[in-house]
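Notes to self after the call with IL:
- keep both proteins in one doc
- input above output, always
- annotate only the second one for now

Protein 1:
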Amino acid sequence: MTSVLLLRLAGPLQAWGSAARFARRTTENAPTKSGVLGLLAAAQGRERDADLSDLAALRFGVRIDQPGTRIRDFQTAHHADSGKSMPLSERFYLADAVFVAGVEGDASFIEALHTAVQAPAFLPYLGRRSCPPVEPFDLGVRPDTHLMQAFREEPWHASEWHRARTRSRRTLDVLLDSAHGEPPHLSLRDTPVSFDPRHRRYELRGITTTSVEPNSAPLPGTPPPHDPTTALRKS
């Protein structure tokens, strides 16, 4: 049986590029597999040119708890020594987004990754170093289960204002690695082969889109609902 490690990816800004190059750095609408595996590899202290085959073999999925808003940052810069103008660039981010990302695999390997997340060799970031996560980041290991079941049992992590705005919606979108032989709904060049900056390499990744109704139980630490008119209505 497999286990699942869940991470809550939330912060003021996130950026998950899969085809971003040169002066225009875009972001996908949800965390990428290469971005999250890079985070886990950094937590384990792997070097940039380390073998990634064991991480790439994990099944990856992400639940979109709060989509956030796409924003554009137009940047100008001058060389520190010469003062010459550097190329104008654009950076795109997701603001106020919340995701639950998970990796599914052999139980002992998942436990090893969880240990690394609890005491990371390099600090985690949400796609770019300027995007630190907010707590709670580590949601722990779900033993003897699979990704979809873990997503169903995990409470909805959206903020209160987002829940109030989307109260009528009962399901959350999920992006999963397509199963072997399953026709994907979309594809991204997002399976990392090497993070070596001299020749980064990624393979195509098939993605299946679905949805899930999350656990309706309140998050730990959530205060109970309070309605001061309850006593009046009883009388």
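Protein 2 (the one to annotate):
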Amino acid sequence: MIALVDGNSFYVSCERVFDPRLEGRAVGVLSNNDGCVVARSHELKALGVAMGAPLHLLPPAVRRQAVLLSSNYALYGDMSRRVNQVLGEFSPDVEPYSIDESFVGFSGFPDGELEPRCRELRDTVGRWTGIPVGVGLAPTRTLAKLANRLAKREPAFEGVCRLDAAGEATRRVLESCPVDDLWGVARRSAERLALMGIENAWQLREADSRWVRSRFSVVMERMVWELRGRPAIVLDDMSEPRRRLLVSRSFGRLTGERHELEAAMRQHCTRAGEKLRRQGSLAQAVQVFVRTNPFLAGEPQYRNAAVVALPAPSADSRELLAAASRALAAIYLEGYRYQKCGVMLLDLVDVERRQASLLETPEDDARRARSQRLMATLDRLNREMGRDTVRFGLPRRDNAWKLRCERRTPRYTTCWDELMRVKTER
């Protein structure tokens, strides 16, 4: 058996741990640069605020009632680490899946003790970290995701729900679950399944697995086995390497200065290069785009993008930056106040499957090996000694592209200067 432990409104819960005044209030956490709502409390959902709602479009009545905070990822990441430490007290098999979700394996544990153990786990996480969690227990990851959803939605389960492979209750749950609600089923796959008469999870479970594989993929076939209660999916199946990488961000303030756009482009390109190397890929082209703020009436509007192909697939930040600089130079125009800039790495290929050229020489191999060693050293320094310990170019103070986080709460657990202060009366 395996359990999925998922934090309830995780970002909001992290904020409430250090500010109990937020309990019972409508609370929302905003994305980078305070652009839109990315996490909502139940109270904020009840006010009709949708996930992803732009901050500037929220009705004044909602803004008066709600507490809207900038995202505080340093705090959320540290709280996630603490939750996983607690999970480790209950099983040696803990697999973090995202910042607010982890799978906990209970292989070898007595079956009759699992539900009480999960309830104790839930209580302990809440008591030691302050984060409320829901626990879904099932024989497979796919069923555990469904069980977790029930645990969080249905008060009768009191935060812990168990789904076994067989039984009438499981059948009812699967029949009421649209196939596009299943973990890992993309919208287009769901539309194709619907055309073939498979609209809910139970119908997919009853489908011929070989037929499903022949028309979709081996991952979809494994989904069928998972719904039948046979473990077939590992986390790597659900995290396929991306075919493109995008890093972009709205500026904290509008700017028409070219050097500020170049600084933003350099920052985004460096981050994209780090992600590219982390997933073991090479990029074959770099795209840079810029745009003004389309919501500012009366402002001259401009948006453009340019793609520069690399001479050979590369994950070297220096080569990515050189290409991105040429792309930005091609699209930059004076006289506009820019609001956003982004870098996208295109046509990614695996390092191991790089297409060799007939014109390559031994010197090219040696140069590529030096590049890999240099980038590995750079990544290690930044990983072990802190982000941007080694960087390309020095940023100026008060750059326009810096994050706007006027509503961010203190980083209580990771920054000495922002520790919580307690006043006592003598």
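Annotation: The first strand starts at residue 2 and ends at 7. Residues 362-385 form the longest helix (24 residues).
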